[in-house]
């Protein structure tokens, strides 16, 4: 497979030089990084946006040094894999996430990235889905899969409550848990998003005003809770689970990671209720069965909703503004160029929207 790498050795990247709002991204020419032994060079096709990148941009990641190319995940094709030619071939479709991407070294907001080979997974069934879906998968699915099956140990017939259901991980968790035979309920602050939640697997929806435990007292109850909002609702979520159940904190879309007051476990954690957490990692991505998940997406058994798709690195500012304002209603994805929007599913040659989304829920492409 012939490389499409520019002859002059340069690429385009969205670079942050200082903390601030969405306007701080500067799209500029950078030299294409060169991989050393044990690394791979990936030509990026698509990448998803994550709130951790928003927090870094805002200055809440003190260990990140600027200038920096953000982006903790990416999907694309292998260009070079020195020392790992037996594992990766030029043109292999791959996904990568975490491991210091966009924090310790330059990440996915670019046309190329170099990452350790140990955090790259070949997606053999990638021809079943579009680039925008593949770009959404790495971080969203490794977090979802790990939180559900490693932290919560989800089983068939479990009753799962997802606190923060309209996040991308919340939507994916609802779809996957439903496909595994669990009963799924989800919360949202916006009543108009109930249809979105139900379309992705939620059988019960609670409008969240900061406290849903009193509403749940009128229902059968739950033995598993996935906490996406964070410490602002964690105490209440602990009151939503029955004895023997588990609450897993996996996100903090509220932007708060610590309590303002002193957290007292003996007061806040009910008898025989377990509190755990799930932390994303590069190792977790490798353990996530992306091919199995992709196959399920292709057969429409899991519908991990994409909220909005933006085309081109020059749209990073706009995409971050959309994330800041919580307007996406699902995962935000950036495609590197507009040629990628036409990649068909191989099942009938239809587009992603034709295969997964109804007219009402198809992602908006900008």
From TrEMBL:
The keyword Coiled coil does not apply. It holds the Pfam family ADH_N. One of its GO terms (molecular function) is oxidoreductase activity. Residues 20-334 form the Enoyl reductase (ER) domain. Keywords: NADP. InterPro entries: ADH-like_C, ADH-like_N, ER, GroES-like_sf, NAD(P)-bd_dom_sf, Zinc-ADH_QOR/CCCR. Coiled coil: none annotated. The keyword Mitochondrion does not apply. PANTHER family: QUINONE OXIDOREDUCTASE. This is Enoyl reductase (ER) domain-containing protein. It comes from Letharia columbiana.
